[in-house]
Structures are given as C-alpha cells and as structure tokens.
Amino acid sequence: MRKVIIAGNWKMNKTASEGRALVEALKPLVAEVGPECAEIVVCPPFTTLSAVVEAARGSNIKVGAQNLHWAESGAFTGEISAAMLREAGVEYVILGHSERRQYFGETDATVNARLKAALKAGFKVMVCIGETLEEREGNRTEEVLARQLDGGLADLDAVTVSGLVLAYEPVWAIGTGKTATPEMAEATHRFIRSHLAARFGKEAAEQVRIQYGGSMKPENAGELVAQPDIDGGLIGGAALKADSFATLIKNAIAGSRKK
Ligand code: PEP
Questions:
Q1: How far, in Å, CA of 217 to CA of 254, rounded?
Q2: What number of helices (H) and strands (E) belong to the chain?
Q3: Which of 41, 82, 174, 242 is at a distance of 20 to 30 A from 234, taking alpha carbons?
Q4: To the nearest whole number, what is the mean pLDDT of the chain?
C-alpha cells in the first residue's frame, strides 16, 4: 500500500505571519491524522519557510520548498540552495512545477539537475509533470509525459526512483476550476506507472507515489484518491485556507480507503 501524500503548494501567497497563522489554524483540524494514514505537507514561499517550520514543529504537518538550485552556492540571483533549505528546516521540495516551466524557462534538463542536487542533499522530492491543453487536444499527452519523465529522471536508478513522489498536473486544470475526471486522471496515472515500469522495473514503479494536481478541492478529492493509481494530491488554491485544506485531506483519506 502506498501512503497518501497531500501537499499544499502556496505559490507566491502568504507572508511569514500569514503562513504561521494558517498552520496554527490547520494543526488542530488535522491532529487526528496519523502518520500511518497520510503525509501532510505545506510548501510556502522561501521567506515564509522558517516561520512555518517553527509553527509546524511537533505536529504531523511537514514543510516543503517550491524549488531548489543544483549548485551548492554562487552567482545565481533569485535561486535557493540545498544548504539554505536544510538550515531552514525543510524536508520536502517541489520541482518542475508547470509555472516554473511556463514562466521561468524550466526544462526537463534543469529539473533533472535540481532533482539530483535535492536527492544528494537528502530531501524528499515531488517532481511535477503535465501536458498543456493544446498537447492533450493534439493527442500528445503520453508523448509529452514520457519526455518529461525520461528527461527529468535521467541517470537515476530504480531504487532512487522508487522513493520519489511524482505530481501529475495537467496544465489546463491548474487554477482553472477544470478538473480531470477521476477516470481520465486514473488513465494518465496508469500510463505514467507503466512508463516507469518499462524504464525502471515493475517493483520501483509500484512504489512511486503519484499525486494528482489541478483544481483538487474538498468536493472531488475523495473520488480522485479512490482511484487505484492516484496516491494523493498537490493542491494550490484549496490549500490556502485551513478549513478547506483540512476537509480535502480528510476526504482524500476516506477516498483512499475505498481502493
Ligand atoms: C498547483 O499549483 O500545483 C495546483 C494544482 O493548483 P490548483 O489546485 O489551484 O489548481
């Protein structure tokens, strides 16, 4: 059984004080979610990380960053290193989010370089992949995902891959209110797992956790996570309020029990 992982991607939202308040409000709402049941992660902007790490200490809420640079240090204005994130108390990292790919020139090669640096430094990584609307309508979804997987995970071995979390996020569903139907999302997750099996072996592919992301809400989280190959969610908008995020987490866990 793969453990459910629900992560909130706060994007460029929440100052340090707002982030602390959100985590303080979330803690009692998810206090009964045991570690055997689900992993809960919040991923604030860099300047909010330390406040959120402090607020989450001793609770079942883990903290992740939204990026990590491949170099140890140096002339990389606007970037953040593994050592900086480690000292801030971060455990998880999101890499290759479609907004990074779309607006900031992220490529499969840079995702791969970031991923290798993050793994070397011992972070748990959520690697995002997903097709645009044009690619889906042009029947190119599988080709695009295969390219992102092959490039993003280049040079990794099966044991390393088995410990990864992938986030399948159809770009047309992010922040748009349009969700892939559970059946559509499941079919794509199944393709991702079969592609991983072909490249890294069945055993590794069965262990990789694949989150769905794209307008996941309390209302659809249960149905999505009830699908056999959907192991959790990466959530934007619905993670910005404690009550909606807590309800989403509980509904996702209830959905996972129907598998
Ligand atoms: C995301 O940014 O990863 C995301 C899925 O956003 P939203 O839930 O708002 O669609």
A1: 14
A2: 12, 8
A3: 82
A4: 98
